[in-house]
Design goal:
The structure holds 2 protein chains of 2 kinds. Helices cover 6% and strands 41% of the residues of chain A. Chain A is mainly beta. Chain A has one domain (25-214). In chain A, strands 1, 2, 6, 7, 8, 9 and 12 form a 7-stranded antiparallel β-sheet that branches. In chain A, strands 3, 4, 5, 10 and 11 form a 5-stranded antiparallel β-sheet that branches. In chain A, a hairpin with a 4-residue loop joins strand 10 (165-178) and strand 11. By secondary structure, chain B is mostly beta strands. Chain B has one helix spanning 29-39, and strands at 2-10, 16-23, 80-81, 84-85, 97-101, 117-118, 136-141, 146-151, 156-161, 166-171, 177-182, 187-191, 197-201, 208-213, 219-225, 230-235, 240-244, 251-256, 262-268, 271-276, 281-285, 292-297, 312-317, 322-326, 333-336, 345-347, 351-352, 356-358, 361-372, 378-387, 392-405, 410-420. The longest helix of chain B is centred in the first third of the chain and has 11 residues, at 29-39. Classes of the chains: A mainly beta, B mainly beta. Chains A and B meet through helix 1, strand 9 and strand 12 of A and helix 1, strand 29 and strand 32 of B.
């Protein structure tokens, strides 16, 4: 069953209790499963605390304006790349079917580690058994109110596999370029979903990562 | 991700005087917009910058500012689209990285820059603008968010975000629009008709709420004196600078303009500033008696106006940079960075340390030093970070306790960003 999916960007301030804290920057993971009629069958919100080492390394490269000589960062293929800041840096705008960056999902349930460089077992795009259909990434324009600002990235995963697929891990992969201008991919966030979230066939999982700061 | 701000005051010999530390929580929407530009691979979709300006992407989080002396006096980069011609700053120390301020107002997510920031030269950016064949004359600002520009082709007053896009325009009351100033409530504008008239205008729609004749016959600049609530005005024909009663235009005082071609007029912190178009100078004038206390030269025209104003006319100071309007048909605005002798605090170069990791933690430190050469104490109440090719306030923190740096002492400000998995 081929299920069409299209993630819709949402620019709004959402303040789940999970966000509260003293961190300078939070990420919140919001998961919604809907059936073919759009009825919500499951909804979860959890705090994401799993910014990985690549996140800091990419910020370092970008803040430094590092160009030509690069800085070593491990990519999703477990290869250390000499990465530079350029106009292709930190993209998350993957198109449908593209599983190399943006938000990926997987079936691994090992607790996140700061040195994680890829999902433990990433789910492939497709309609075969155990596969999900990756939508375009949707990136909402930043929203803010009197006390908070927020950036939301969204992706839909439709299950046309004919069976239930359970997602246990979710991440965020960004692009960077090596000093030879080859695009590489870097996992910057990885979260594990306690107990997993089941997506029955014909249903769609919407993943929202909300990166949020509160003054 | 957690943040910490550490401030250390050091003696000139490097010995620590005191050290304070506080959590940093105040990431602004500017940081989110920087991330957005990268994540979505699109240009800045915020006020004043074209969304298609992908040139900014390469330096989205750039904050590696050099030492504060690395001032490039004039810089203009052009991006054409929708008739706009934008500039963005050269990588000068004052624009990027950690900045300090005497302001202590609470941080809000929408803050776009650190108010009252301190830095050598207070440089920010140069700016170009054009659409059609505009000729720009008077210019003024609320010194916070907006500025207004007089454009005599097509006889309009245009309201802009400071050095950014237009948000409003309305027709001028006459057909020879010249000087412009803002008193905090109204715009004051002079039209150089056969008998020049000074108008008080509603800044929302340009309607005239008061008008009277100007004292001369070739009206140019206007400036509002916030100390005395009077209007200052200059005239090319009489070559005089007038002090006027804003109620009816009565001349309260007058003195000779320093040059022979007085155009733009500005008032700031007790002094008048008069731009002389022929002399290509801004004269700082004591309003009591008219003595010139300082002269700020404009750069010479070296390549037909591509690097400096051909026909400077209006002048305004937004608290950070002088902005000069150009009444050539190009319709340029220019930023003028103050010379080094304006220095109070010298900014050191930004230090961006390689991230370090100690399982399960990681951290990265951003650091900058500020030397107080002002001859007196400087008290810092807010610290922030400007990042990006088009500087955006990415984070700011009001200090729990203000930090005073005595003369010759150094403030070392460090932001530590940490993650734990």
């Amino acid at each position: 069953m081929d299920v069409k999916v299209k993630a819709e960007p949402k620019a709004e301030i959402v303040k789940p209790k999970e966000v509260e804290g003293t961190a300078v920057l939070n990420a919140v993971l919001e998961l919604t499963v809907k059936d073919k009629d759009g009825k919500v069958t499951e909804h979860r919100v959890q705090k994401s605390e799993s910014f990985l080492r690549q996140w800091l390394e990419l910020l370092y490269i970008q803040a430094s304006g590092m160009r030509w000589y690069g800085y070593p960062v491990r990519d999703t293929s477990n290869t250390v790349r000499q990465v530079q800041a350029d106009e292709e840096s930190m993209r998350a705008d993957a198109l449908a079917t593209d599983t190399t960056y943006g938000i990926p999902v997987g079936t691994g349930d090992t607790a996140p580690d700061i040195d994680d460089y890829a999902l433990e077992a990433q789910i492939a795009h497709g309609i075969g058994a155990g596969q999900l259909q990756y939508s375009d990434m949707a990136i909402a324009h930043p929203a803010f109110d009197a006390t908070a600002s927020q950036l939301t990235v969204t992706r839909d995963f439709a299950n046309g596999s004919g069976g239930t697929v359970t997602v246990y891990e979710i991440g965020l992969i960004l692009t960077m370029q090596e000093i030879d201008d080859t695009t590489r991919y870097f996992l910057v966030i990885r979260d594990v979903i306690a107990g997993g979230i089941a997506i029955p066939t014909g249903q769609t999982l919407t993943v929202n990562y909300r990166i949020q700061a509160t003054v | 991700m957690k943040g910490n701000l550490t401030l250390e005051v050091l003696r000139p010999d490097g010995r620590l005087v005191r050290r304070t530390q506080q959590p940093s929580r105040s990431i602004t929407v500017g940081f989110m917009k920087i991330l957005y530009s990268s994540f979505a691979h699109t240009g800045w979709a915020r006020q004043g910058y074209q969304a298609a300006n992908l040139e900014a992407l390469e330096h989205n989080l750039f904050m590696a500012a050099p030492h504060g002396r690395a001032i490039i006096p004039w810089r203009r980069e052009s991006y054409y689209g929708d008739g706009w011609d934008f500039a963005y700053p050269e990588f000068i120390g004052e624009c990027f990285g950690i900045q300090i301020s005497t302001d202590d107002t609470a941080v809000t997510p929408s803050d776009a820059r650190l108010p009252l920031w301190i830095g050598q030269g207070r440089a920010r950016w140069a700016y170009g603008r054009r659409y059609g064949s505009n000729r720009l004359y008077g210019i003024c600002t609320d010194r916070y968010q907006y500025m207004w520009i007089v454009d005599d082709e097509p006889n309009k007053i245009c309201k802009h975000y400071l050095c950014k896009e237009a948000v409003l325009d309305f027709a001028t009351p006459g057909t020879y629009p010249r000087g412009l100033t803002y008193d905090g409530t109204y715009l004051w504008h002079v039209d150089d008709a056969t008998t020049p008239v000074i108008y008080r205008l509603d800044p929302n729609d340009g309607s005239s709420t008061l008008n009277f004749n100007a004292p001369g016959t070739e009206a140019t600049g206007l400036a509002w004196d916030f100390d005395n609530s009077v209007l200052w005005h200059c005239d090319k024909a009489t070559d005089l600078i007038y002090k006027l009663d804003p109620a009816d235009g009565t001349v309260l005082d007058s003195f000779a303009a320093p040059g022979g071609d007085p155009c733009g007029l500005e008032w700031f912190e007790g002094y008048l500033y008069n731009l002389d178009k022929t002399d290509r100078k801004i004269y700082k004038i004591n309003p009591v008696g008219g003595a010139v206390v300082k002269t700020i030269p404009l750069p010479p025209v070296v390549d037909s106006g591509a690097t400096s104003p051909q026909s400077p006319w209006g002048v305004m100071f937004d608290g950070l940079v002088w902005v000069i309007s150009d009444n050539t048909s190009a319709g340029f605005l220019w930023g003028l960075y103050l010379p080094e002798d304006e220095t109070e605090v010298v900014l050191g170069g930004m230090e961006i340390f390689v991230p370090t990791f100690s399982h399960p933690n990681g951290s990265m430190v951003l650091r900058r030093c500020f030397s107080n050469n002002s001859g007196g104490n400087v008290t810092i109440k807010k610290v922030g970070i400007h990042a990006g090719a088009i500087p955006e306030l990415a984070a700011a923190d009001v200090l729990g306790t203000p930090v005073t740096i005595a003369d010759t002492q150094v403030l070392r400000a460090s932001y530590t960003l940490g993650i734990t998995v």
